[in-house]
Design a protein that fits this description.
alpha+beta; Alpha-Beta Plaits; four-stranded antiparallel β-sheet; 3 helices; MTH1187/YkoF-like
């Protein structure tokens, strides 16, 4: 399963980078395959471990912000591993043709 999610603190002003870094730190320390870009962090693993990391990432932001917004999109596809890399590789292969 791949989950793309965004955790946004609310009520802390416009500069939210340090709060988002708290969430990304949880993801990176999880040891699960992950990738962060300007809008989302993608994370790959089984349901329980991925959702646990998302829950802990939200909790890290919630510990410092009065309100938290979570946007989550999941690709639930049993038996597929290395989807973070293989999906992008497939698109890049088509672009190079």
């Amino acid at each position: 399963m791949i989950v793309a999610f965004s955790v946004t603190p609310l009520g802390v002003g416009e500069d939210v980078g340090e709060y988002v870094a708290d969430a990304v730190r949880v993801v990176r320390e999880s040891g699960l395959p992950n990738r962060t870009d300007a809008m989302f962090t993608s994370l790959e693993g089984d349901w329980d471990e991925v959702m646990d990391v998302v829950r802990r990432a939200v909790a890290a932001v919630e510990a410092r912000a009065p309100r938290v917004s979570l946007v989550l999109k999941a690709d639930i596809r049993p038996g597929v591993t290395d989807g973070l890399t293989s999906k992008v590789s497939t698109v890049e292969r088509h672009l190079s043709e």
